[in-house]
């Protein structure tokens, strides 16, 4: 058993089970403009900032839809109310509250390294007081954040704010973009991948990962 210098946590799909809800919101918004999204496209949106996702969806819409291309503002005007209504009901991922509480009890430094905006995190976290144990946070709209995932900036900034080297931090992610971000920052990368992926798909989407998890509960007894 070991004690990492710090634990850097993604939020969506890692601590909170929000990814199916985000996917549903993007699917409804894209379908509203005549271009339903495929499963692999929805997976590609995971872990990325809202506006980066919107730009990607608009590219897909422009490539296949006969309809007039919406603006980013029009797309998000459809998507955001759907997402906000759904995300209020997102449950914690199995083992997430226990892992955060264990790190707090053992005084292992923690930071949130998320693509979600500050307001979106506040919305999703409001039913989950255990998330208040993570005091250091880097949001997707953080003024000091230059680039979103898959760039390493969010994890480097989170480690800097904790006063530790990213290379001795454990990063916890679920998305390919997030895993690439953490890996590029030099972190020890733990990934909780979507459970519908085959082993081959998982290995192709997450190269260079240090460890795959079936549940965050697997880590509880490994931090002392």
Verbal overview:
With 224 residues, the protein is of the alpha/beta class. 43% of the residues lie in helices and 10% in strands. It has a 6-stranded parallel beta sheet, sandwiched between helices. The longest helix is centred in the middle third of the chain and has 16 residues, at 72-87. The protein starts with 5 loop residues before the first strand and ends in a 12-residue tail after the last strand. The model has no long low-confidence stretch (mean pLDDT 94).
β-strand percent reads: 5-15%
For the secondary structure, the number of strands is 6
Radius of gyration using CA atoms only? 17 Å
Order of helices and strands: EHHHHHEHEHEHEHE
What is the CATH level 1 assignment of the largest domain?
Alpha Beta
CATH-derived architecture of the largest domain: 3-Layer(aba) Sandwich
Which bin fits the share of residues in helices? 40-55%
Taking all residues together, what is the mean pLDDT? Answer: 94
Can you tell me the CATH superfamily of the largest domain? HAD superfamily/HAD-like
Count of the separate structural domains: 2
What is the SS-derived class? alpha/beta
Report the biggest beta sheet as strand number plus sense, adding barrel if it closes.
Answer: 6 strands, parallel
CATH topology of the largest domain: Rossmann fold
- Strand numbers in spatial order across the main sheet: 3-2-1-4-5-6
Distance between the termini: 6 Å
Residue stretches low in confidence (pLDDT < 50, at least 5 long) are: none
Principal-axes geometry comes out as: globular
Count the helices. How many? 9
């Amino acid at each position: 058993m070991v004690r990492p210098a710090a634990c850097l946590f993604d939020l969506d799909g890692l601590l909170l089970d929000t990814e199916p809800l985000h996917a549903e919101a993007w699917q409804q918004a894209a379908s509203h403009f005549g271009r339903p999204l495929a499963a692999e496209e929805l997976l590609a949106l995971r872990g990325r900032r809202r506006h980066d996702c919107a730009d990607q969806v608009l590219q897909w819409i422009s490539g296949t839809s006969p309809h007039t291309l919406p603006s980013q503002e029009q797309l998000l005007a459809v998507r955001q109310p759907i997402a906000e209504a759904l995300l209020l009901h997102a449950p914690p991922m199995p083992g997430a509250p226990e892992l955060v509480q264990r790190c707090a009890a053992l005084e292992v430094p923690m930071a949130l390294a998320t693509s979600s905006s500050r307001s979106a995190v506040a919305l999703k976290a409001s039913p989950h007081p255990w998330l208040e144990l993570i005091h250091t946070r880097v949001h997707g709209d953080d003024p000091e954040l230059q680039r979103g995932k898959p760039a390493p900036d969010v994890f480097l900034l989170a480690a800097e704010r904790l006063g530790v080297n990213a290379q001795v931090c454990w990063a916890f992610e679920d998305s390919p973009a997030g895993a690439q971000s953490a890996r590029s920052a030099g972190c020890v990368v733990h990934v909780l991948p979507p459970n519908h992926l085959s082993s081959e798909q998982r290995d192709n989407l997450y190269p260079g990962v240090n460890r795959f998890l079936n549940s965050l509960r697997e880590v509880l007894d490994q931090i002392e």
